[in-house]
Each structure stands twice: as C-alpha cells, then as structure tokens.
Write a structure and sequence with these properties.
It contains 5 helices and no strands. About 75% of the residues lie in helices and about 0% in strands. The protein starts with a helix and ends in a 9-residue tail after the last helix. It has one domain. Helix 2 runs antiparallel to helix 5 and helix 4 packs antiparallel against helix 5. The protein is an all-alpha fold. Keywords: Membrane, Transmembrane, Transmembrane helix.
Length: about 110
C-alpha cells in the first residue's frame, strides 16, 4: 500500500484520527480562550470560500495554484492574527489549522 493511500484523509481510519485530534485541539483551545472556537470557525469558513471560488477555474494548473496560494496565504494571515490577539492559544491554533489544511481537500466542491 502506498504512503499516499495511507495518509489520505478520506481513508476511514485516518479520517477518525483527524476528527478526534481536531476535536481535542478545539476543546483545549476553547478552554484556554473563549474566542478560539469562533476564530477557528471563521478560519474554516474562509478556507471553504477559497475552495468554492477555486472550483470555477477551468484550468487545472491555475486551479491548483489558486487553491494552494489561497490556502497558505490565509494560513499565514490567520496565524499572524492569532499571534497578536490570542497568544495563549497560538500553538493549539497552529496544530489545529495544520490538521484542517491537511483534512480539507480543495476538491470538495468538484463534481467531475
């Protein structure tokens, strides 16, 4: 079995590991800071919006570039915000957003 198949978040065993880890991180962050959970929800919604608008791009190369640049640019902007406004949950937010970026695939809006 190839490494990509094992690490694929759509694999049911890996999916539950990702989901469990995400829930633990969200609970830990919410205990440390009440504003952590709304910030993570906003992060996910904007990431989904980036992916949604990306599915309108017909060229596969431009679509991949747009999604990759959009995802990681939003990640950097979000982490700068967390570092300035919610310092006590920075590491939890870092791990949570990395898990979200790995688990959420840009192809969720593609019907092809």
């Amino acid at each position: 079995m190839s490494l990509l198949k094992i690490l694929n978040p759509t694999n049911s065993k890996i999916f539950f590991v990702f989901l469990g880890l995400l829930l633990v991180l969200l609970i830990l962050g919410s205990i440390k800071s009440f504003a952590f959970l709304p910030a993570q929800i906003i992060y996910i919604l904007i990431l989904l919006a980036i992916y949604y608008f990306g599915h309108f791009i017909d060229s596969q190369a431009i679509n991949i570039s747009y999604n990759w640049i959009g995802k990681w640019l939003w990640f950097v902007v979000y982490m700068v915000y967390i570092a300035n406004k919610q310092k006590e949950v920075f590491l939890v937010a870092l791990f949570t957003t990395i898990i979200i970026n790995i688990a959420l695939q840009p192809t969720i809006f593609n019907k092809k």
